[in-house]
Amino acid sequence: MTPIENATPESPEKSPSPPQDWITAYCDGGSRGNPGPAGFGVHIEDGAGKVLGELSGFLGKKTNNFAEYSALLAALRFAQEHGRRRLRVVADSELMVKQMKGQYRVNSPELRPLYEKAKSLIRELDRFEIQHVLREKNRNADRLANAAMDRGMGRGVESSMVRDSGRETSRHLESAPAVRGGEAPRISAADPPRRNGGEPAKMLRGFTRDGVVHLLGSALPDGIFVKVIPE
Q1: Which residue ranges form the domains of the chain, and what is each CATH number?
Q2: Rounded to whole angstroms, how far apart are CA atoms 122 and 136?
Q3: What percent of the chain shows pLDDT beyond 70?
Q4: What's the order of all strands across the beta sheet hosting 86-91?
């Protein structure tokens, strides 16, 4: 495995890697209140500029910096799951970029585990770069992060969204109570979701296409949040 590069461009003496070997992930995270309802967005392209995927998720009540790191981790997991060994991350969080480059220390107990997890995933790559850009140059990721926050605040039905270019994935959808106090409902297989009153929530079935959740033979009323589980 070749050494990991956290941000330094390849030196002129080295032969540049073919552009198609790299993928670029534009990452953003935000919080309305800081802390407040938070979400992240990631827009991913290959070396030729083809969109490979878009990811976004609602995080509950978190800080801006937590959301920024969540976007970075989503990008790293995407690369890992899709067998991509060279990842370039573009983000408008100067703090996160400088922390990942070792220029700033990570003193926050909330961010430290995310930072350590990111470093662990980076070590599994052949090459990694990260760079800071101004927000106006990161509009796709900003759009996705804001869409995640909108969903989490009751302006949409799905609590998370993952889209891979050219791929349609079947999903289970569990209806759950609306978010209260900015916190996303926490549901596990051992503790099935229940409605107000204690009765089990209805299990719905559907699929995603182009980032939109389609229910099969069912409809959800306004204000309902769902957990999306791969089938």
Answers
A1: 19-144 (3.30.420.10), 167-230 (no CATH)
A2: 27
A3: 58
A4: 127-132, 86-91, 22-31, 36-46, 51-62, 160-164
The single-letter DSSP state of residue 155 is I
What is the residue-averaged pLDDT of the chain? 76
Give the model confidence (pLDDT) of 21-61 as tens digits.
999 999 999 999 999 999 999 999 999 999 999 999 999 99
Rg (CA), the chain: 19
Q: Which one-letter amino acid corresponds to residue 204?
A: L
- Tell me if the bond preceding 35 is cis, omega within 30° of 0: yes
Please tell me the distance from the alpha carbon of residue 207 to that of residue 230, in angstroms, as a whole number. Answer: 9
On the question of pLDDT at 90 being above 70, the answer is: yes
Which residues does residue 214 pair with via DSSP β-bridges, in sequence order? Answer: 207
- Over residues 8-22, the pLDDT tens digits come to 333 334 445 566 699
pTM above 0.90, yes or no: no
The Cα 185–Cα 230 span in angstroms is 18
Contacts of 195 (CB under 8 A, 6+ apart): 175, 177, 201
Residue 187 is which amino acid?
I
CA 54 – CA 68 distance, rounded (Å) = 15
Q: Which two tokens stand for residue 116?
A: 């350590």
Q: Which of 129, 143, 160 is nearest to 225 (CA)?
A: 160
**pLDDT at residue 204, rounded to an integer:** 65
Question: Do 175 and 212 form a contact (C-beta atoms < 8 A)?
Answer: no
144 to 110, 150, 161: CA distances (angstroms): 23, 10, 9
